[in-house]
Amino acid sequence: MSAAPAAPRTESADHTDLLLTPPVPRAGWRLLPARVGAMCAVELQKLRHDRTELYTRAVQPALWLLIFGQTFTRIRAIPTGGVPYIDFMAPGIIAQSAMFIAIFYGIQIIWERDAGILNKLLVTPTPRSALITGKAFAAGVKSLIQAVVVIVIAAILGVALTWNPLRLLGVAAAVVLASAFFSCLSMTIAGIVISRDRLMGIGQAITMPLFFGSNALYPVSVMPGWLQAVSKVNPLSYQVDALRGLLLGTPSHLGADFAVLAVAAALGIAAASSLLGRLAR
Amino acid sequence: MTQPEEQDPGPGRTTDESTGVADGGAEGVADAVSCASLSYAFGDTKAVDGLDLAVREGEVFGLLGPNGAGKTTAIRCVTTLLPVPAGKVRVFGHDAAKERMAVRRLLGYVPQQLSADQGLTGRENVALFARVFDVPRRERAARVAQALAADRLAGTYSGGMIRRLELAQALVSAPRLLILDEPTIGLDPIARTGVWEHINAVRAVTGMTVLVTTHYMDEADQYCDRVGLMHRGRIRALGTPAELRRGLAEHQGTDTLPTLEDVFRAIAGSGLDDTSGGGFRDVRSTRRTAHRVG
């Protein structure tokens, strides 16, 4: 084969024409972080071109904190363990708004499929699990920006949050892991139902139960028994527990929280990756 | 570069030759693509039904056929997008079912739809593909600039510009095999010529193989070294455009040389063929592309 067609390739490679030489493949273990980086970079580039989503997505958590939070702080009906109610719910709102962003990822991947973008990515040397992990972390990056916005709003409203950088790093890790899980949950459902319309309905149907079936707005102790059981298997509760412990310093179970979030994210990535092939058909 | 056929002399090879026309000069030249009795069904509809196909290294091979003939399905099996449920597909000797990553490294793929990401600039679109093909950071910008120069959001592009952008995305990794599914659909004549001239210019320097499907017989006649006419999931005629046209002339006993379109009609029959099935999705995505092209 080294005869006719290959000859010009090697010759003009010296003339710095890069498009004649295929890039050298990365070694196995470096592939995944590289793909994750590429997906996150794309997400940030899109946000840079169109910031409206950033602003519009800040409205809802701001309203939760301003209206719901301030009103319920005055009612003092919910046992928060001594902290003002708005402080208590601020971590819950961070988790909720991050979840809403992540749940959108299933719709986005179906949109990318319909637009042909997904197919083209699937034909690149990117294992399906790496593509899903990349998307999951991209959801994490976007949620992280959202979390910063909510933290700033909360701080303006006088919520006494920690500014300890190590704790904030922990907050970032919890937000990224939980967003990875929720985006994979959504992409898993996308792989099952395939259609955007159906997924939108399902997305609406699961976000509210996930939110209200968690400790985001009230402590687990005031829930009826069956709801406590729901909260126990709801990763959002573990995220809120971690965020509360890190941001407010209230008693929490950080070890268990992070373990649950990490396992949930890993399972989510595995499930979504195994179903991604269905979207290619 | 190694000769993949030598590492694996066994399966695939012998069956490829059974298509008959593909015997000339096969000795010592690895096939870029070889399909042996490839079949793929959507439910009860057999989209591809025992396809045998060999695309030689360095040639432009045109896969022609009516809507629903199975062209896109066959292409999607070659690109590893679809599994290979029956038969064997090899790309430069690599099994498309088992060595997916190796196959993908060799491919540049432009799907039927206009599929650049509209929320990114042209350069960012190409840079993404440079990244996922492991182009190191230091040469990324230069490589992208060589493939394309554009800083506008792809959402503002015309159809022809998006196709050029997609070509850049596919070519930034210097693929050995470029796969194009109806690359000129919905484009104006100037943009169509532009796309082909770009492909040929790159091919002249790199010697890459091109596998293309098209409905435009004039393009196939002008730009393809060999064409395969697909109908109901199989290749029904194979050869250079001139060979096929001469073949039909002999068959009909006419003096005037028929066009490739006449050959197409002779093989695919005239009018709508509802038994070929599967047309709706094909037509729908074609319409969507046409709509986006404007």
From TrEMBL, chain A:
Assigned keywords, A-Z: Antibiotic resistance, Cell membrane, Membrane, Transmembrane, Transmembrane helix, Transport
A biological process (GO) of this protein is: response to antibiotic
Q: Does the keyword Ribonucleoprotein apply?
A: no
- Family named by the database record: Belongs to the ABC-2 integral membrane protein family.
User: What's the superkingdom here?
Assistant: Bacteria
Query: How does the record classify its membrane topology?
Result: Multi-pass membrane protein
What is the name attached to this protein's record? Answer: Transport permease protein
Picking any one GO molecular function of the record gives: ABC-type transporter activity
- Entry keyword annotation includes Cell membrane: yes
- Membrane-crossing ranges are 54-73, 93-111, 144-163, 169-194, 206-227, 258-277
Principal location class: membrane
Question: Any idea where this protein resides?
Answer: Cell membrane; Membrane
**GO CC terms of this entry:** ATP-binding cassette (ABC) transporter complex
What lineage is this protein's organism placed in?
Answer: Bacteria, Bacillati, Actinomycetota, Actinomycetes, Kitasatosporales
Identify the residues that the record assigns to the ABC transmembrane type-2 domain, covering every copy: 52-279
